[in-house]
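Structure (tokenized):
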């Protein structure tokens, strides 16, 4: 398959294994998973492209739940129907479930270890870098004009420095995007 072609179907086994790898090799969850998701579903599997994955992320974030699980469900459904959605979701959550069950059984003995504490400190630091890299990639792919850039800055400020709920910020962004489109269309008609 050529790099720019998108595969529109996947076996249930392929979906499970791909999402299991994503869940297994990503620490920090959430946005830290985005680079690995993109590498696996775009670069390795060709199941989607950059533009479509950004739309999937937007949808995945706009509904309740974890972005990686929501993304796996949306893409799994597109590639394999309801069974694909269930299998992809099971794949992405299985590694966490296995690791959490293992840690829980040894919790008291390992959580007092200086080595474990330092390892988790390093993991948290690496996750910050992964999230920052994902944010930069999404920004570069999404912010195509001045209005999009202004909306992104406003959303960042509201999210980082106020208690405005994320849903209100997303809805405000949608309204601002519609307003920018309307004003731009009106300006083009007048010219």
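Design, position by position:
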């Amino acid at each position: 398959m050529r790099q720019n072609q998108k595969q529109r179907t996947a076996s249930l086994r392929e979906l499970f294994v791909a999402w299991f790898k994503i869940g297994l090799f990503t620490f920090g969850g959430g946005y830290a998973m985005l680079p690995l998701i993109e590498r696996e579903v775009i670069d390795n599997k060709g199941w989607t492209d950059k533009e479509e994955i950004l739309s999937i992320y937007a949808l995945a974030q706009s509904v309740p739940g974890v972005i990686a699980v929501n993304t796996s469900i949306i893409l799994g459904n597109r590639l394999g129907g309801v069974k694909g959605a269930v299998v992809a979701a099971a794949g992405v959550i299985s590694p966490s479930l296995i690791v959490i069950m293992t840690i829980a059984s040894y919790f008291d003995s390992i959580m007092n270890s200086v080595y474990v504490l330092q390892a988790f400190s390093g993991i948290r630091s690496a996750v910050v870098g992964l999230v920052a890299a994902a944010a930069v990639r999404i920004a570069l792919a999404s912010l195509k004009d001045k209005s999009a850039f202004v909306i992104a800055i406003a959303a960042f400020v509201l999210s980082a420095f106020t208690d405005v709920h994320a849903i209100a910020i997303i809805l405000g962004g949608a309204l601002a995007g519609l307003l920018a489109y309307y004003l731009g269309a009106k300006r083009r008609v007048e010219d």
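Reviewer-requested clarification: The chain has two domains: 1-141, 143-191. The helical segments are 12-24, 34-44, 50-62, 67-110, 114-142, 146-161, 166-190.
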